[in-house]
Amino acid sequence: MSWGAGVIKPIYVLNGPNLNRLGTREPAIYGHTTLAQIEALCRQAAGTRAVEFRQSNSEAQLIDWIHEAIDHGAGIVINPAAYSFTSIAILDALKMFEGPIIELHISNIHRRDEIYRQSLMSRAATAVIAGLGAGGYSVAVQAVIALADGGPVGAVAAAGP
């Protein structure tokens, strides 16, 4: 989506609590890929599209970034981590965003303990990706760009980064 004088809005990739520990945090569930490596995957998947890639352990900070995306972003990819199951405040912020939102989970939350199966964020999400590991981020970035630009999702995802 263009705005202003030919300026293309960035995609926001927002990561919640404890994701800064990826690579060493419960590798049997989350793998060995670090958040820095995931950021590189996202930037590669986005091609020339700007990406605002951020992580915070703070609910308030995530909400502030969603508000920033409301004003300046074309789409949001969000891995809210534990806030997926607890934060009505993040859900309310996401509901204000008019562009596409992809909720992302590295693990398949539906195969995990009951406490991890009901994401509040899904109520605001355009689509949900769960269980593809770190590679899910590339798929999510490509999909959110396609949705933001009004194109078919399958064609972009099939083309790859």
Characterize the structure shown.
With 161 residues, the protein is of the alpha/beta class. The protein has one domain (2-33, 47-61, 71-128, 146-159): Rossmann fold, CATH 3.40.50.9100. It is 37% helix and 17% strand. It contains six helices and seven strands, in the order βββααβαβαββαα. Strands 4-3-5-6-7 form a five-stranded parallel beta sheet, sandwiched between helices. It has a two-stranded antiparallel ribbon with strand order 1-2. Helix 2 packs parallel to helix 5. The chain is globular, with a radius of gyration of 15 Å. The chain starts with a strand and ends with a helix.
The H/E string reads: EEEHHEHEHEEHH
Major beta sheet, specifics?
5 strands, parallel
CATH superfamily placement: Dehydroquinase, class II
Q: How do the strands of the widest beta sheet line up side by side?
A: 4-3-5-6-7
Oligomer: single chain
Q: Structural class from helices and strands?
A: alpha/beta
CATH architecture: 3-Layer(aba) Sandwich
Number of strands: 7
Mean pLDDT: 88
The CATH topology comes to: Rossmann fold
Uncertain runs are 156-161
Question: In percent, how helical is the residue content?
Answer: 25-40%
Total of domains = 1
Q: End-to-end distance, in Å? A: 19 Å
Bulk shape: globular
**Whole-angstrom Rg:** 15 Å
The share of residues in extended strands comes to: 15-25%
Q: Report the top-level CATH class.
A: Alpha Beta
SS field, number of helical segments = 6
